[in-house]
């Protein structure tokens, strides 16, 4: 048997072992090839690289504000099986953006705080990003890329091989560009699902879920009607607001009350 045939056969066998059909927090079926622990390792590595490349905010008041909002959300976030602690870093940048990576890494850019004008609106964004991690969207996207690029790629990942092709594919799955500071949008299905998870989290934490709709209006206004990077693959303005309002109408009253996190130095 030729070597290429052997490799292809082994890859196909490995594919049959790794393929898993799981269910997201909203009940959506998912195609997962890469384990949560592997994704957590990738997320940790990428976050370390990002902290070396990007300017980290040293403003105490702003950091306390972001940490306060995030801590309130994390208190109602279910424990994650592949890591124990979340880490939050505020990046000093005009980008209107935030992200969360597998492994429990959360980044918030100070530019976002000029558009997320209240702590409830910030909770909407951070809750949305936590939703990406809870729903394993990174793993799902990497898995789709692996499948699209052929089963042989799986053996490379399983054996810990590195290289430009695999690295770019993994970075895209994490929502990061080749230059780690560049954030890439998730699909509309992922973004819509994270919207629903995020609004549930902010409601459970005692924040006002209606502020998620106001945030979207601020986002649109800040970019003269066109959504900035963080919203670039979301459903249309009207569709998103309709979906959020429908989800909000079904939410129970939370027994918790969000803390008063003050205001950032923005």
Automatic annotation (TrEMBL):
Source organism superkingdom: Bacteria
Cofactor: how and how many bound: Binds 1 zinc ion per subunit.
Organism, as annotated: Enterovibrio norvegicus FF-454
GO biological process: proteolysis involved in protein catabolic process
Cofactors demanded by this protein: Zn(2+)
The protein's name in its UniProt record: Zn-dependent protease
MF-aspect GO terms: metal ion binding; metalloendopeptidase activity
Domain Peptidase M48: 61-246
Keyword Nucleus found: no
Pfam families cross-referenced by the UniProt entry: Peptidase_M48 (PF01435)
UniProt KW Zinc keyword: yes
Family from the record: Belongs to the peptidase M48 family.
GO CC entries: membrane
Keywords: Hydrolase, Metal-binding, Metalloprotease, Protease, Zinc
PROSITE patterns (alphabetical): PROKAR_LIPOPROTEIN
InterPro entries, per the entry: Mito/Outer_Membr_Metalloprot (IPR051156), Peptidase_M48 (IPR001915)
């Amino acid at each position: 048997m030729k070597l290429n045939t052997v490799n292809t056969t082994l890859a196909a066998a490995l594919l049959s072992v790794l393929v898993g059909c799981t269910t997201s927090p909203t009940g959506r079926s998912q195609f997962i090839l890469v384990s949560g622990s592997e994704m957590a390792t990738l997320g940790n590595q990428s976050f370390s690289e990002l902290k070396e490349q990007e300017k980290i905010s040293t403003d105490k008041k702003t950091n306390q504000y972001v940490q306060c909002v995030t801590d309130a959300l994390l208190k109602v976030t279910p424990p994650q099986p592949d890591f124990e602690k979340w880490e939050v870093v505020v990046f000093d940048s005009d980008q209107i953006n935030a992200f969360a990576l597998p492994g429990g890494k959360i980044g918030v850019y100070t530019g976002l705080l000029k558009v997320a004008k209240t702590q409830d609106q910030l909770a909407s964004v951070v809750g949305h990003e936590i939703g990406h991690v809870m729903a394993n969207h990174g793993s799902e996207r990497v898995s789709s890329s692996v499948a699209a690029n052929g089963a042989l790629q799986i053996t490379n990942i399983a054996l810990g091989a590195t290289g430009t092709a695999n690295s770019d594919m993994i970075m895209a799955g994490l929502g990061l560009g080749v230059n780690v500071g560049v954030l890439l949008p998730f699909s509309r299905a992922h973004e819509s699902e994270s919207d629903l998870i995020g609004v549930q989290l902010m409601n459970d934490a005692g924040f006002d879920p209606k502020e998620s709709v106001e945030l979207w209006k601020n986002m649109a206004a800040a970019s003269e009607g066109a959504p900035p990077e963080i919203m670039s693959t979301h459903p249309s303005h009207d569709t998103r607001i309709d979906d959020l309002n429908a989800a909000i109408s079904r939410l129970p009253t939370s027994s918790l009350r969000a803390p008063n996190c003050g205001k950032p130095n923005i």
